[in-house]
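[retry 2/3] Acyl-CoA desaturase: previous attempt timed out, resubmitting with same input.
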Amino acid sequence: MSNPRGKLARLGSRAVPRHTWKAEIEWYKQNFHGFLHISLLGPIIVIFLTAPYVIARQNTIIMAITWGIIGGFSITIGYHRLWAHRSFSACLGIRIALAVVGAAQNQWPILWWVKHHRAHHKYTDTDQDPYNATRGLLFSHIGWLLGLNENSWGPVDVSDLKKDPVVVWQARLYWPIVITVGILLPGAIAHYGWGDWKGGILYAGLARIIITQHITFLINSVAHAPWAGTQPYSASTTARNIPLLAILTLGEANHNFHHVFPADYRNGVNWNEPDFSRWIIWLWGRLGWANDLNIASPFEIERARSNQLKGRTERQRDSHEDIQALSKLPQISWEDFRKRSDDANNLTCISGVIYDVADFMDDHPGGRDLIQQSLGKDATDLYHGSHLHSSHADDILKGLQVFILEDSGH
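[retry 2/3] Acyl-CoA desaturase: success.
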């Protein structure tokens, strides 16, 4: 049987992977992705070559900025909070609008975007994280796309998206939407509005797409950089809160909060954690266009913040108290655990401790499917292996303890 004390000892034991420049160059050589190079770098070259001959008119620039902000919200609210994390639900009209405007930002279909983002949360800062921040700023910002290798991503469940007709429809018509809504529509508006179709296509189309892309990419790179921001909720990942970047990214750079509470429709709750996307979702909720707005309890938020503020001595004392609490749990055999699990289908074992996860399955950031894989099994490797859980996650787990395995083992 696993030692229950192992739950406390193993946290933080996993080594951070190291990547040399030689290894990175070899990675890009082996995984060079020509289409993504053209898609990401080609428009920059076009703008550089043609901008000197196309005057940037005031109306066109205002439209580009406005269209860029609307497009940014389609990513933060739609791609990210609605589809990637299911932090709220929305009516059909809102979902279609978010899917169309989101596609016009050329950040690829919802299904693909969510796949890499869920892998990022499930395998943060490991080699199975698509934009692993431990590989440096270049890789986490854009290198993971220029040297794309989807086989290196950790597996995730996206079956819920494959059942969403809006997601399926958007994937099928993705490129026609990018061209018509993302590039031609701004050109048409500028042409019929003030006779500037070239500027509309160049600045409100191509340039706006590039800028929106890289603002989103800043969340993957700068919001995980060791020299940036703060970690008020957890230091178990590289994610950080950066208020100024949060303004630019419409709330997304309150990233330390988000990694601890990914299912919360808000990315921050304090005045110094600005989140414009949150208030739009809240307004839609008041209007009846969005519902099931998921929030973390104030108690859990404060507990995460408190744990992060604790000193080393306090954490050691808590570890001792945890071990004492484990010793007071009723003991059961492995056979009894399996029988109880078969009867109720709600128990899992981690490091010799049995947890009742019935009420937590729908709230788990990795999805209900991930927990279901562990029911009736020893999930020690699953919990401690691919993702280094935060102290907040450990606190939640403590509240689910019901038994401890007998020393006879299994």
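[retry 2/3] Acyl-CoA desaturase: The two ends are 6 Å apart (CA to CA).
[retry 2/3] clearing retry counter.
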